[in-house]
Amino acid sequence: MNEVQPQGILGRMVAIPLRHKQFLVFCAVGASGVLVNMVVFGGLSAALEATGSPDRWLAANAAVVGGWAVSVATNFLLNDWLTFRHRAGDYQSSRRRRVLRYYVMASIGLALQSLVFNALFWTLAWVTDQWTTAQWTALHQGPPGAVGWVWQGLVEYWLWCANLVGIGLATIVNYLMSKRWVFR
């Protein structure tokens, strides 16, 4: 009962327990959501920067919320259709309840994501205010080799990195709440 019915050549070769398949599909949907989130985040960040927004913190947080809103909608539809569609009972008649629960759960994830994002935003803002130009230049140069290349990317794209760390932590909470509360 816990095995997925084999489909196609690959399906006949490998039978995956439902709980593992469900998590893998959830992660694939989540990866598409991260892509959607980061594209919207990047687009909004660039648009707000181009308008000359005087408050970088407000612009960055608006971009975080915009990316979240679009990715939550796509993730709900994909999770409802792919990840949790096997649920029995009155599952099809309870879509409104699932949408409401999903947005409550996603709002908790947004709070966690925003907390992490803002902690990293203000930490780096404080650090950069404390440093001299020489220290800032040394930070940009970073260590040599591959580590230096990664370091350079983190320094240049720290807002993106902060957003990804927040998304990563929120993913754990979102999966557990999706499985046990939203799509039950």
Could you please describe the fold and organization of this structure?
This protein is mainly α and 184 residues long. The protein has one domain (8-182). Helices cover 81% and strands 0% of the residues. The protein has seven helices and no strands. The chain has helices at residues 8-13, 18-50, 56-83, 95-130, 133-141, 145-156, 158-182. Helix 2 (18-50) runs antiparallel to helix 7 (158-182), helix 3 packs antiparallel against helix 4 and helix 4 packs antiparallel against helix 7. Residues 9-13 have low confidence and may be disordered.
Structural class: mainly alpha
Secondary-structure element sequence? Answer: HHHHHHH
What do the pLDDT scores average to?
77
What percentage of residues falls in helices of 4 or more residues? over 70%
Ranges where pLDDT stays below 50 over 5 or more residues in a row are 9-13
Rounded to an integer, what's the Rg over CA atoms? 20 Å
Annotation field: number of helices: 7
**In the residues, how many domains can be counted?**
1
Number of strands: 0
- Profile the largest sheet: none
The proportion of residues in beta strands is: under 5%
Overall 3D form: elongated
Q: Give the terminus-to-terminus CA distance.
A: 17 Å
Concise structural overview:
With 184 residues, the protein is mainly α. It has helices spanning 8-13, 18-50, 56-83, 95-130, 133-141, 145-156, 158-182.
